[in-house]
Amino acid sequence: MTLKQLLIERIGQDGPISIASYMQDCLLHPTLGYYTTRDPLGAGGDFITAPEISQMFGELIGLALAQAWIDQGRPTPFTLAELGPGRGTLMADLLRATRGIKGFHKAARITLIEASPALRKQQAQALSAHAPQWLDNVDQLPDAPLFLIANEFFDALPIRQFLRDGDGWRERRVGVSGDDLIFGLTDSAPNPALAHRLADTSDGDLVEICPAACTTIDIIARRIARCGGAGLILDYGDWRSLGDTLQALERHQPAEVLANPGQADLTAHVDFEPLAATARAAGCGHTRLTTQGVFLERLGITARAQALAGDLKDPELAALIAAHRRLTHPNEMGNLFKTLGLFPADGVPPPGLDR
Ligand code: SAH
Fold first, then answer.
1. pLDDT of 43 above 80
2. Neighbouring-strand partners of residue 176
3. In this predicted structure, what is the pLDDT of residue 46?
4. Mean of the pLDDT values across residues 110-126?
5. What is the pTM of this model?
6. How many Å lie between the centroid of ligand 1 and the Cα of residue 154?
7. Predicted confidence (pLDDT) at residue 109 exceeds the cutoff of 80
8. What is d(CA 80, CA 147) in angstroms, rounded to the nearest whole number?
9. pLDDT tens for residues 240-261?
10. Residue 44 and residue 62: Cα distance in Å, rounded?
11. In the chain, what is the straight-line distance between the N-terminal and C-terminal CA atoms, in Å?
């Protein structure tokens, strides 16, 4: 049975489902989900991410986290965590770059939060020299200083969508028509969680919320506020979302969101405003939202590219220059992707970011 058939049957019995429920099944259904059944990354997959573009990305993230660890007096032991580590490339580059930092590896408990069995296997291979530990969920993170990276993790968490209708909201849902999945809307109802959006939206506007993202940030922020640490959240998105950002990607091409459940990557832009608000409410400090391009430049990506260029000749040199441009240029990933840093409210922000 395909996931599409399964969803059509279930919706036929129980009625339409939320976008969040649809996303959850598409991405993480135990046997038919997109992430649970494959490695979607890289040139041969459906999309490519910053750590897969260049080793420079993971190296700079690693050095930034190590500097934050030094700034906080080298707490030992500490949790070195990654959310959704994909192929393990970022963590491998991070660990190589921080080898020379005295005490860092010895104190680090490498912890990977990963839902996909297929990707856990890849991570185990990439990190075989480091004995990482896997967790299903952030609430299993130990009560210890937490230095954490999440790249393109939050965009995979399930969102809900609401259409403004007078002073109420109609939730967008997935229903069935014949042999197809279709979008529909609930009746209009008030929604206290969206009260603050009545001021900046008008009839017909669509807003998105991501409850799972706030729950995740709340847990991380409490750890950092209580035990120390730092978090770097990188993703595409912005401050306060407006409009439909749900998208499907199949073999590097945009696809229909409802056409092939489980066969395409589904993501939504990350709205960083509620994440920052959640961190604040948990007693944790957060930085200003900073574009990826500016963040990587401040961390020294150009100097690192120059060092790597060394005696390189084309085509390797051209590939390095293209990778640097792709990660930082405003027309490529530089502006679309943003960084939010978390740190103890009375401490200093992680390198490259300001409060
Ligand atoms: N960070 C990697 C991979 C990004 S793809 C990179 O930059 O290349 C998203 C990753 O998050 C995958 O590893 C996916 O399996 C994982 N993931 C998605 N939803 C998850 C969830 N709810 N819990 C744990 N891992 C999840």
1. no
2. 181
3. 82
4. 96
5. 0.96
6. 8
7. yes
8. 5
9. 989 999 999 988 899 999 999 9
10. 27
11. 51
Q: Residues with beta carbon inside 6 Å of ligand 1?
A: 27, 35, 41, 49, 51-52, 84-86, 90, 113-116, 119, 151-153, 156
pLDDT given at position 136: 96
Distance 18 CA to ligand 1 centre (A): 21
Q: Would you put residue 242 in left (φ > 0), alpha (ψ -120 to 50) or beta?
A: beta
Report residue 167 as tokens. 């002073």
In order of 88, 116, 236, 350, the CA distances from 34 in angstroms are: 18, 9, 20, 34
pLDDT (mean) for 292-315: 97
Find the 8 Cα to ligand 1 centroid distance in Å.
26
Q: Does residue 44 have a pLDDT over 80?
A: no
Q: Which of 35, 90, 266 most suits a substitution to test ligand 1, by most atoms within 8 Å of the C-beta?
A: 35
The ranges assigned to domains in the chain are 3-31+160-208, 50-158+210-344
The domain over range 50-158+210-344 is classified in CATH as 3.50.30.30: no
